[in-house]
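User: tokens in, sequence out, please.
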């Protein structure tokens, strides 16, 4: 199963594509899509959409795992991140992907085993599980890879349960 993980943002949108075989992960591609603060919001959103569609077309993932919006005290920022998240979901839907959504707490639980783990613990697990030499930067990229791994663990659990019930 090939999974596209997305950490939504309008200035920086992290993405990571991993392939899961059995219970092992292999990183295919990761990075971030950035937009300039001087761009009009509609141009920023269009750039995010076009870039994600290009990644989807090139990598051909089976599913997308999108981090849910973390509440922000700044309403304007929360709205803009929500718009970028909507663009990410639209790009995945138009790309024919099944979409799974996870809260930051669910992602931390899946990777570290503790839903209130700190960012450094999650990044260390991303590095370890994907056998990377260093933690991916910026943080948004590591978060996107964490979302992809989270879905792999969740989907793997569901598939194991289905196998048990077939017996």
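Assistant: Sequence out:
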């Amino acid at each position: 199963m090939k999974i596209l993980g997305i950490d939504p943002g309008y200035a920086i949108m992290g993405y990571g594509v991993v392939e899961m075989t059995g219970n092992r992960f292999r990183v295919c591609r990761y990075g971030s899509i950035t937009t300039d603060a001087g761009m009009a919001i509609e141009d920023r959103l269009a750039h995010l959409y076009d870039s994600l569609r290009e990644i989807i077309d090139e990598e051909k993932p089976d599913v997308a795992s999108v981090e849910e919006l973390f509440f922000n005290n700044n309403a304007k920022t929360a709205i803009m991140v929500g718009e970028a998240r909507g663009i990410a979901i639209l790009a995945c839907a138009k790309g024919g992907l099944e979409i799974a959504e996870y809260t930051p707490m669910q992602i931390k639980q899946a990777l570290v085993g503790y839903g209130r783990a700190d960012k450094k613990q999650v990044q260390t697990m991303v590095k370890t599980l994907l056998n990377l030499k260093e933690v991916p930067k910026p943080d948004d990229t590591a978060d996107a890879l964490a979302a992809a791994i989270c879905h792999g663990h969740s989907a793997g659990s569901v598939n194991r349960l289905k196998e048990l019930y077939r017996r």
